[in-house]
Amino acid sequence: MSLDTNSHHDGTVDVRPDPRLLTNLPDILSALSSIQSEEAELSNSLTDLLSDRAPILSSLSRLRSVVPQLNDLNEDALLLSEKVVTTARTAERVGGRVRSLDEEMRRIREAGDRVGQVIELKSSLAELQASIESHDWESASRHCARVMALPLDVISGPFAEHVVPTSDNHLPPVQTLQAAREQLLSVFQENFERASSSRDSAATSRFFKLFPAIGWEREGLQAYALFIVDLVRVRAPASAKTSSPMYYTTALTALFESIAMIVDQHQPVVEKYYGTGKMISVVERLLEECDRVVKGLIEGWEEERSMKRKASLQALLLTPPLKCL
What we know:
The protein is mainly alpha-helical. It has a domain at 58-172. Helices cover 76% and strands 3% of the residues. It starts with a strand and ends in a 7-residue tail after the last helix. Pfam families: COG4_m, COG4_N. Its main location: Golgi. Belongs to the COG4 family.
């Protein structure tokens, strides 16, 4: 038998028979009663729904009242968006012009700096030449160092090559500077050699410290090394005789003591004007001279004492005689 179902709000389900299968009056009346109960329940549900309609309508009414305000806000937002876009475009144009202005200002500053450097270059070269002519070597070194401190692209640039040369000196600044440096190097070497030969410590120190100021550090150290080497050359006293038993021992002792004393006294001077570690090249040259002197002393000792002949005789004495067969 087919059955119909009816669900309630409380979750219960009624099962009623198919009306087409009802054949007697009690079953028909029972089914009719069930349908009437269901109808009453549905009517009550509709009544409850209609009673809850007022809050929904009130909410819908409030929403409809807000619609004009939302439309106004939408229009304001569109206007604001247009203004922001316009402002952004204006800001971009202004920013581009500001960046262009900054670039122009940077170029102007660079041009001003370059002009100032070229003016300093021309002034320093003129003062350098004047100092050389007046034999003021300290001032010449200072002005030369000022020129060398300028960027190379300034010294060798086309602008400097155009404005720096004068009627007295037509050479480009680079050539003028190099010629002055070479002239100063020659003067410093000559005066240093003269001062060191005459053992003029003040003049020796004066010219020694000028070499690195104009970029001739290696040449200054070489000149100083020659000066140091000359101090340790072994020269036998007039009264000394190579035949003396203590001559060579005394000479070697004096040599090593002299080297130790010179290194101790002159290292602070070299490092003061040339920097830490610069004494190494001087010491290397000093050791070369030491080796040469020691070799000469050993050869003199061997010759004076006839050491080769004595060694040969000693070898013969130690050689066993040959036995005759």
